[in-house]
Amino acid sequence: MPVRPVLTLPHSALITPARQVGMIDENARVLAADLVDTMAASPGCVGLAAPQIGVGLRVFVVDVSGHRLARSCHGTFVLFDPVVEEVSAPETAREGCMSVPDLTGDVARATRVTVSGNDPHGNRHTLEVDAFEARAVLHEMDHLDGLVFLDRVSGPHGVFPRKVYR
Fold it and tell me: Could you give the count of Cα atoms lying within 13 Å of 90 in the half-sphere of its Cβ?
């Protein structure tokens, strides 16, 4: 499947709430594969939502495998029409985003999350995620609601230039 370009702010697709997918058909499965392939081709990327590639549908992929901050790890998973069922108290940590490539920010997010949604075959799943995987899921959920992490930063003191590692 093709690797798609990732949109960056101020593109309007990033600030527009996504529509429900509903029935998962072949086009939806192709979209899921494109999300997985685009995430995999993007160094350091642990999640990607459909609006980031210009598709206004409620679907995202997450994979925190091998990340040093991950505790729970469900491997690569795609959820269509995801719903957050339960969250714990938030902790503040640094986040970045492919759609905001030059900045990072301190964002408070729940450290444990229960999320449910459909996989590319239409099967319903409920996942309990924590730590970094919970942060990644909530970050992608925000994209589905037309938000980026900058909308969650408590103020300008919590925004930083992205460090470049060599």
Answer: 11
What pLDDT, on the 0 to 100 scale, is given for residue 68? 93
Put residue 71 in one of left, alpha, beta given phi > 0 → left and psi -120 to 50 → alpha. alpha
Can you read off the two tokens belonging to residue 57? 């549908």
Domain parsing of the chain, residue ranges? 12-161
Helix (H) / strand (E) element for 143: namely helix 131-144
pLDDT for residue 166: 44
Q: Is the full-model pTM beyond 0.85?
A: yes
Residue 1 near residue 27, CB atoms below 8 Å: no
Which member of 85, 86, 91, 140 is catalytic?
A: 140
Task: Kindly list the averaged pLDDT for each block of 10 residues, start to end, along the chain of length 166.
Answer: 93 98 97 98 96 98 95 97 97 96 97 98 98 98 98 92 72
Known active-site residue 140: yes
| Structural domain 12-161, CATH architecture | Alpha-Beta Complex (3.90)
Helices and strands (DSSP H and E) totals, the chain? 2, 8
